[in-house]
Structure formats: structure tokens, C-alpha cells
Amino acid sequence: METVLLGPEAVKSVIEIGDVVDAVEAAFVAEARGNAQMPAKSYVDLPQYGGDFRSMPAYLDTGEFEGAAVKWVNVHPDNPADHDLPTVMGTIVYTDPETGFPLAILDGTTITRLRTGAAAAVATKYLAREDASSLGLVGAGQQAYTQLAAIATVRDIETVIVADTDRAAVEAFLDRFGDRFDVREGTIDEAAACDVVSTITPVRDPIVMAVGERTHVNAMGADAAGKHEIADAVLEDARLVIDDYEQCVHSGELNVPYSEGVLTDDDIGAELGAVVAGEVPGRTEATGVTVFDSTGLAIQDVAASHVAYESAQAAGLGEDYRLVDTTS
Fold first, then answer.
1. Tell me: the pLDDT tens digits for 259-291?
2. β-bridge partners, 71
3. Integer Cα distance of 254 and 122 in angstroms
């Protein structure tokens, strides 16, 4: 047997974002129902380089598909300026649970972008207003592209407001989506007033100070202790839905106000898996502001890798490589 190598171009050419959204939604349900194993994300901190490594293993059985994977991923915020490299890079080993054979080695950078956007789309599907038509993006980096593409599969997005201090990044975003949406540059306040807003920055001091009365917020940027995008007052007044308790109180948007006692367990409304599985309600007519605290789950990587692997197999793409000696 041979392992398939799937680089970024192969993954991008075969994968449909709507399929990833569906697979990630199924992964949330599987976890809520106890059909997944996901050990805690482990960190290797490298302060001398201003970054860290993370190891993320998981097993998943949705009833429709089964898979296991481990992702080795870094976060080095200085990479773009200092090394002309992405802030986040990853490699995923996608494995057959029955035999342990590595079916594929995939570009984890692309998979991470796709499944992160898909997680926001799933949260938006269950927590945003049904008639939501405007999307604010606080941050115009690569994840902004996937946020829009994914969220547009679950809501009829017409207007997009993007806010970023990097004018070149904003211009590139406008050029990419200007023919598909009514998209314009705006302030953070304008973006945060939209029906749905995704925050995708690495800041450590809040920059979103207020949102609309019934806005749904996808808090995507905080993925390490000390990161904090959204003002405590917004979080205190919102219905908070998280992806994973341990990860969110350690490194999600909640981590700073939680560590300071501003927020407690009583302020956390639910995990998203429970909402998707129908165990607790999503948005109701009485719901005001909702916030989804996303730290990124290994089960999402398994789900997205499954889609990429199966799509590549069907299309005959990928490079076969004899990675494992299978002779007895």
C-alpha cells in the first residue's frame, strides 16, 4: 500500500467548501454524542521565536464516515514580515482507524483555513438570524476569504464590510469578491454592526467594543492564552457558545476574562456540538447577541481531511508514495 501526498494545489482543486461545512457539522454532532476521541491540544511554546507548535490528534465516527488524524501546526505571527512565510502552517497525517495505515499526508495549512471557516459557518447556521444578509470581517488576511466563502453557504450574504489596518490586504480582498458581493472597506465598528461578524485577528487587547443588538459573532482569532479581540462588556451581555470547554477557557476568546473572574462557567451557554445535535436550542426569537468562541478542534481536521482525501481519490489526484514498509 502507498500513502497519498496531497499538497495545497491538490487540496484546493478537489475540495468544495460546502462539503467541508457539512462534514464539520457532522463532526460536532459525533463529538456531542460520544462518537469521537479528542485528547487535549498540546503546546510547545517557543518565546525565542515568538511562536509555538501544537499537536492535535483525533478519531471520529459520524455514522457516514470514520477517520483519524493528527495535525502538527505552528503559529508564528512574525513569519509574514520576517520570513515571507504564513503565520500558520500545518501537516496532517490522515489514517485508517482499522489498520493504522497512513492513508494520506495533507497540506494542513489549507485544511486549517477550510475547517476554520466551516466551523464559523456551522455556528452561523444555528446561532445567527435566519434573515442575516450582512457580514462583517475584522481582519482581511487569508482566513477572511474562507470565512466569507463558508458563511455564504448557510446564509444569503449580500453585503460585506471588511476592516483591517493593512490597506493592501483590504484591496486584495475587495478585488477578489467585488464581483460577487456588495463588499466595501469599513471601520471595525461598522463591521461589528453587521448581522454576522467574524473576528480573525491575533490581538491581545480588545478591538471590538460594541456589536449590533442581534449580531452573531464568530470569535475566531484567539487561539492562545492572552489573546482577546472582543470587549468584556460584549461577552458579558451575549449568549456564549463555545467549541470546547478546556480549550476555550485556556486559549479562546474567553480565556482572559475567565482568568480574571469577569466570566465564569455560569456565563457559558453551551458547546456548539450540543446545539447542532439538538440537545440545547440555538437562536430563538428572544435571543440577542450570540458569540461563538472557536479555538479549533482536531475533529474538524479529521472531517476536512476526509473530504479532501475522498475527493482526491475520486479525481485521481495526489502523489502515491511508499512511506511505510508493509512487508512482514
1. 999 999 999 999 999 999 999 999 988 899 999
2. 56, 92
3. 20
Q: Which three cell numbers stand for residue 186?
A: 469599513
Pairing between β-strand 36-37 and β-strand 66-75 as defined by DSSP bridges: unpaired
Question: Residue 241 carries which side chain, given as an amino acid letter?
Answer: V
Could you give the domains of the chain?
3-112+298-321 (3.30.1780.10), 126-293 (3.40.50.720)
The amino acid that residue 51 corresponds to is G
Distance CA 58, CA 37 (A): 6
DSSP assignment letter at 229: -
Over residues 207-225, the pLDDT tens digits come to 999 999 999 999 999 988 9
The rounded distance, in Å, linking the Cα atoms of 188 and 162 is 8
Q: Which residues are catalytic?
A: 71
Are 319 and 62 contacting, i.e. CB atoms less than 8 angstroms apart?
A: no
Residue 92: phi and psi, rounded to 5, are -120, 135
List residues bridging with 104 in a β-sheet: 4, 94
Calpha distance 43→35 (Å, rounded):
25
Q: Which of 165, 188, 162 is nearest to 175 (CA)?
A: 162
Distance in angstroms (rounded) separating the CA atoms of residues 147 and 124: 11
